[in-house]
Please model this.
Amino acid sequence: MAARRCHVWLGAESGILKGVDLRRKRAINFTDFNRGQEISEIAWKDREEREVLLGCVNGTVKVFSTEKENVTEFRDCSGGEGPLRGLCVYNSSLVTCTESGLLKVWNEGSTDHVEVGRAVCRMRQDTTRPERVATGGKENALKVWDLERLQEPVFTAKNVRNDWLDLRVPVWVRDMQFIPASDKIVTCTGHCQVRVYDPSTPQRRPVLEVTYDEYPLTALSLTPDANSVVVGNTRGQMAVLDLRKGRLLKCLKGQAGSIRSVQCHPTLPLVASCGLDRFLRVHSTETKMLQHKVYLKSRLNCVLFTSRGNWEEEDAECTALEGVKEEEGDEIWDSMATVTDRTESKRNMDQQEDPKRRKRRKQTSTDPGV
Model:
């Protein structure tokens, strides 16, 4: 099962779902080329990671089975305008959000929906409390919604104070993530800021703000300990920022184009990133070294890490299987008869022939009267 060996899944502009086996540095296309169904969102449908949700720009949601290795379900989730900016599952119901701001919960036979504001850049679900999602975008402040009660947001962030020229600071939320074991939310903006909000306090402005470089930030992901966040920008730069002290820890180098998606492994100190340069890269968040680099031929929109952490055991198992196959192959080769070249075989026969007989055969072949 090639799909079960994949450690990273990616969605491309070409509409292809790609799976990557990092141990073998092997990439496999699991769906066909379809430019009209560009994959803009990707997420796990179940905790066992047997099915992958694929959100396409035309509003179609596909379900890919990692066991059957094909698309098992199509669903038309069109509505609103623009591509999907968020996709998740709550109580066996799909939850989608479009760029125009239409947030929908697709229950059986009915749908609940709410307008969350225009120019949405991202919708994210709280993994510890799946009934909560966060939204934000350009001139669309961070909001937290309860999927059980969609009438009003649970939390709405307040813009920061005016700058030193007493001018209003523009709002541009590009990505966000809930910090586990707390009510806090970390966001990144198109104006280079990383901000932390705490809805449990009366303060609606950020409780922490860090500025990284001078290019718009596009994606973020929390490290497994939730003390740091990895961010990427339109310049292809990535960095690990400390959320406790608000400082830069390290830079992750190697990218050559705008970063579209970043995801940290749930348990291992690894972070995967992809973007316009068509490469999947996996860095170590501890040593900042590039661990894996795989060329995937298409411009990439989104990346999804598997939660499996027993890679060493998988490597040992795969190595053992390969050793068994090699031994079986050696036995087969040893049991096969040796086939020699006809010219070489004839030369060997000539050498073994009696010299007098060889001389007599040559005279007979050159005699013109024969």
